[in-house]
Design goal:
The protein has about 190 residues and is an all-alpha fold. It is globular and about 60 Å long. The N and C termini lie far apart (about 75 Å). Helix 3 (about 50-70) packs antiparallel against helix 4 and helix 3 (about 50-70) runs parallel beside helix 5. It has helices spanning about 1-20, 25-45, 50-70, 75-100, 105-120, 125-145, 150-170.
């Protein structure tokens, strides 16, 4: 029963994950990340992946705290975000040591570090780039735990991230009209 419920949760997360990274505004991406992390935490707990559950549930709390700590875009707010991130990185490492069972738990801890790095980014493009690397590592963890719906979700999220990078993060090429002409050539 818990295996089936974990897979259903994985499908729900897929829908949220595919849509949240397509927004240009970082707040929508973070809201989706909050829901994804919370639901993934529940899913992995149901599958016996305590490290994944610990990391994801703690990541949900980290997103909430960072949302309230760093609402304004000042340098002081960014420093507060860095302090909060350092505290959570310590918590991720400590929690991983406590629930450690094997090599997949090291992957989860690495994912937590990448996640922490991604959510303190000031622009959504950099955030998506780090999320891409993070998703690849989560796929390895999904395979190790047999979390197939979660794995499909992470694969689809990678496709969605690539689409978003192409659609939102590409710099437009200058057209002939925008290219300055050297007067001496004319």
């Amino acid at each position: 029963m818990s295996y089936a419920l974990a897979q259903v949760i994985g499908v729900i997360v897929a829908i949220i994950s595919l849509s949240c990274v397509q927004f240009k505004d970082k707040r929508f991406i973070l809201a989706g990340q909050f829901l994804n992390n919370f639901l993934f935490g529940v899913s992995w707990a149901l599958l016996g992946g305590l490290a994944g559950a610990w990391i994801c549930l703690l990541a949900s709390v980290q997103i909430l705290i960072l949302h309230f700590v760093g609402k304004e875009q000042t340098q002081a707010a960014f420093r507060r975000k860095l302090v909060v991130t350092a505290v959570f990185v310590s918590a991720y490492i400590t929690g991983t040591c406590i629930v450690f069972k094997g090599w997949p738990d090291l992957i989860v801890c690495t994912c937590a570090m990448l996640f922490s790095l991604s959510i303190i980014q000031r622009n959504a493009s950099r955030m998506r780039s780090i999320m891409f690397c993070n998703m690849i590592l989560w796929i390895i963890y999904d395979l190790a735990l047999g979390a197939y719906a979660n794995m499909i979700t992470h694969c689809l999220t990678i496709i969605s991230l690539i689409t978003a990078k192409l659609r939102l993060d590409r710099k437009p090429r200058p057209t002939q009209e925008q290219t300055p002409v050297n007067q001496s050539e004319a």
